[in-house]
Amino acid sequence: MMGDVSIIIGITGVYFLLVLAAIMYTRxxxxxxxxxxxxxxxxxxxxIHVIVLICTFIGSLFSASFALALPTFVFKHGLAGCLFxxxxxxxxxxxxxxxxxxxxAYSVKHEIYSPxxxxxxxxxxxxxxxxxxxxxxxxxxxxxxxxxxxxxxxxEGFSGGxxxxxxxxxxxxxxxxxxxxxxxxxxxxxxDFVQTIAIFLGVFGSVALFVYMNWGGITGLMEAALExxxxxxxxxxxxxxxxxxxxxxxxxxxxxxxxxPHLLTRGMMASDxxxxxxxxxxxxxxxxxxxxxxxxFGLGGAVLYGDTVEPNQVMGIIFQDVYNHSxxxxxxxxxxxxxxxxxxxxxxxxxxxxxxxxFTRDVASPFLKLSDNAQVLLSKIIMITVLGxxxxxxxxxxxxxxxxxVYSASATxxxxxxxxxxxxxxxxxxxxxxTLAIGVITLLTLALTKTKPMGxxxxxxxxxxxxxxxxxxxxxLYKRASQTA
Length: 485
Known about the structure:
The protein is mainly α and 485 residues long. It has 2 domains: 2-402, Sodium/glucose cotransporter (Up-down Bundle); 424-485, no CATH class. The chain is 79% helix and 0% strand. It has 19 helices and no strands. The longest helix has 38 residues, at 327-364. The radius of gyration is 22 Å and the shape is globular. The protein starts with a helix and ends with a helix.
């Protein structure tokens, strides 16, 4: 097994290096430069085919969570373990279509490369962007760790423990670092395109084989689930974790994912509003299709293994069985592994690019005079540093790696009112600061005290506080400013 896994990982590494080489060759041929310029490094020069743009958005949003994290939620908590993410992304679609178009138009008009830089410009205060940037860097770290933990745990389970977290993730980080230094957003976008197709083919092929070889079909799996673990088919779940207040609140705070800068950047990469509409449609279709294998993998794992395996390793064990079944199993496992590795790597790259972009454009540039080359160099230094920190965090992950996604989404919800109101006539930088401060205090208080009033999730309660805070304070400050004028 170890030798076969090494071959698949080796092929994946070669594929990534070939894509990177092709991107660099094209850049050298067209510009005579080895390193990407500022516009290409952050936004791929806004010249990406719409199909590639759709795939890079879906790949960056789903990434390792689609194939590795969400099934562990279903394995542990049943049906609600995938429905909350689907519901949250559907809510996020409504914000995405309108906000992404506004950000794209604003960034083109003002020659802006960072979504948080739009806030500094719109609120006419660089400290608004600085504060949001610092918060976002902290908020995104768990999401990067989830990519590393997802791949590390999958490889550990798939190889029967022969490939550990340090070895598997260490190799992946080497490729990530190369992309950060030489590739930029264009290289990430094209790897997303290939790996999104690979992961969908691998996941659907493997889940079909997994269900067939164990139960003969979906009907057989459902009958086995009703007999052995019927509670997995209910929303509260086997441990009554997802009571309705928690389920609804987690669903809503999941919309925070579409406000994360690496996804906002995809909207800014679009050449027109039509491409943003296409991204939204692609996300909708992806959610409908992706729910099925996520649910079947998690439910099937619960029926087969019960409490005998660690949730974070269940997908690796499932794919080990699929891999050993037949030639078809080997093929779909290879596609899945290439896709999952690719998704985790490119999403880590995307988030790190966003962090580098945020730090350079929103923390340093407003206060220091930096050339374009200096900005790119500073971004790379920050990204490599954060990557190392995420690796350390991943050494001691939570029981469910998908919890890292929920933590990140919850924290990002603090920024939702500030983003939504960035072009509102009555927007105020003071209202933005007040909202951010109250949001942080509320979330920290709830998280540290581990309280869930009425059963609602901490991020949702924080959102309930920040939205009226921003709205009311903006109106009050606007009226005072008008009266003074």
